[in-house]
Amino acid sequence: xxxxxxxxxxxxxxxxxxxxxxxxxxxxxxxxxxxxxxxxxxxxxxxxxxxxxxxxxxxxxxxxxxxxxxxxxxxxxxxxxxxxxxxxxxxxxxxxxxxxxxxxxxxxxxxxxxxxxxxxxxxxxxxxxxxxxxxxxxxxxxxxxxxxxxxxxxxxxxxxxxxxxxxxxxxxxxxxxxxxxxxxxxxxxxxxxxxxxxxxxxxxxxxxxxxxxxxxxxxxxxxxxxxxxxxxxxxxxxxxxxxxxxxxxxxxxxxxxxxxxxxxxxxxxxxxxxxxxxxxxxxxxxxxxxxxxxxxxxxxxxxxxxxxxxxxxxxxxxxxxxxxxxxxxxxxxxxxxxxxxxxxxxxxxxxxxxxxxxxxxxxx
Length: 364
Known about the structure:
Number of domains: 3
CATH superfamily of the largest domain: PDZ domain
Strand order of the largest sheet: 1-2-3-6-5-4
Number of strands: 22
Structural class: alpha+beta
CATH class of the largest domain: Mainly Beta
Number of helices: 8
Radius of gyration: 30 Å
CATH topology of the largest domain: Pdz3 Domain
Distance between the termini: 107 Å
Strand content: 35-45%
Helix content: 10-25%
Shape: elongated
Largest sheet: 6 strands, antiparallel, barrel
């Protein structure tokens, strides 16, 4: 009897109904009022402006490869191969990306920021620098080339922005800072790429070939690689510096390849140098090509007298810049114009000497 009276009392007051989630007289339910936030701070507005300005210059690249569906190879179909990012270089429709993005592809397609998709042709590549140039088959009007900056005056701590297509998600913005300068990474040819920019702006698969921008919205690098045990961003990304890009890309557009100097000699494997002569810092001249640049400069290679092996000239500097290995020597001379004369610091028979050599274009 007491329980029945208690139940009736709760029901009459609406308490029991509230417990059950059903009020006898439901109160109106309204969204909460929005709290005013005030104007955005200038640092946020700056990132928003830079993205809006640069996004039309960034493109999404997809590639296909040919696959055979029968044993004899008669039934060939196109299949998706990969994807990446690129950016518009000029009004002629040239697009810059990483070489590894388009490596081995049968065809490449470029999606612009307006969503239009275009077939592109391969113009040229520099695998040693992990750079390549494509060109739109038909050039749309009002292409917006990305503004160029310089990497020569970058400082650790500068703000940077990266735009790309990670995991196929187009027009993605990430921000960070320049984490370090002068890093080295390995290209697809296993040749070292020197002077690379390290950043903590999130870079993931699909970001490759996209622009790294400074706070003024200028290109300062091409996002190329990440260092991560999982394959996803771990806050360590790398970008080829724009000064390298601005030197290589015009050559790719003009000749389809990077024109490099031929020094006229073969270097000695450093392991053989250490075995025969002990630890050495520099590049030892091996076989000198008759009539080549090294021969005309008077460089001397390794020689054999009876059972004795005589050391060749050891190149240790280019125009005062220290050189410790073959990649370093190539980096130094490739940054100089062809036809110019450069000074080599060498060691010959334990004595320091200076030799002048003329940089000649390599022949295919």
